[in-house]
């Protein structure tokens, strides 16, 4: 019996994002062989998105860039996956989260991860123009935490990580693609 091969393009070269896409798809398609590749894909938004809408747009822009690039180079993937981390200030306070955009054939599925409340001092640094990973590295004396457990790992004492939250977000975003009969 030959395994079905699923080709996944991730709109980032960050190993955390590539691993999350691979783990999510492996859970959804356990009988398939997965080939996940990351590529640089511009978000078209600020390096540190500061609103829900800007974060969502960044994920969508990354997926569209990957799809366009592959069309222009006569290449194709089964799924194009992009994750964009951002922050916003909600009625309960500042929080960080990620948007997930997944392109499959002519469909675009959008999902969002769980939200992590942020300390006010961290949010103020972001408002001043810093990126979350740099602020967390300084606060916790770490190096390049955004390619490891992220702010999520640090603030939850390792009980959740950037990768685990992205993995869950991808699985949730896949619902319309797994059940097209229910999603017009």
Task: Please give a structural write-up.
This protein has 184 residues and is α/β, with parallel strands linked by helices. Helices cover 40% and strands 24% of the residues. Strands 1, 2, 3, 4, 5 and 6 form a 6-stranded mixed sheet that branches. Helix 1 (15-28) packs across helix 6 (162-173). The protein is globular, with a radius of gyration of 16 Å. The mean pLDDT is 94.
In short:
This protein is an alpha/beta fold and 184 residues long. Helix content is 40%, strand content 24%.
Structural class: alpha/beta
Biggest sheet details = 6 strands, mixed
Overall pLDDT score: 94
Q: What is the N-to-C order of secondary-structure elements (H for helix, E for strand)?
A: EHEHEEEEHHHHH
**Structure annotation, total helices:** 7
Spatial extent as radius of gyration: 16 Å
Q: How many angstroms separate the termini?
A: 34 Å
Which residue ranges are poorly predicted, with pLDDT under 50 across at least 5 consecutive positions? Answer: none
- Gross morphology is globular
* Share in β-strands: 15-25%
Number of strands: 6
Helix content: 40-55%
């Amino acid at each position: 019996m030959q395994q079905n091969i699923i080709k996944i393009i991730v709109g980032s070269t960050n190993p955390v994002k590539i691993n999350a896409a691979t783990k999510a798809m492996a859970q959804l398609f356990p009988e398939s062989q997965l080939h996940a590749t990351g590529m640089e894909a511009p978000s078209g938004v600020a390096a540190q998105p500061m609103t829900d809408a800007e974060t969502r747009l960044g994920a969508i822009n990354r997926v569209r860039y990957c799809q366009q690039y592959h069309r222009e180079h006569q290449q194709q993937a089964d799924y194009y996956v992009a994750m964009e981390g951002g922050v916003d200030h909600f009625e309960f306070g500042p929080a960080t989260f990620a948007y997930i955009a997944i392109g499959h054939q002519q469909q675009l599925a959008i999902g969002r991860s769980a939200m992590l409340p942020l300390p006010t001092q961290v949010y103020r640094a972001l408002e001043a123009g810093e990126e979350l990973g740099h602020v967390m590295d300084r606060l916790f004396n770490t190096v390049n935490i955004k390619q490891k457990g992220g702010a999520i790992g640090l603030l939850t004492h390792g009980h959740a990580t950037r990768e685990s939250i992205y993995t869950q977000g991808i699985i949730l975003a896949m619902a319309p693609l797994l059940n097209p009969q229910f999603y017009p």
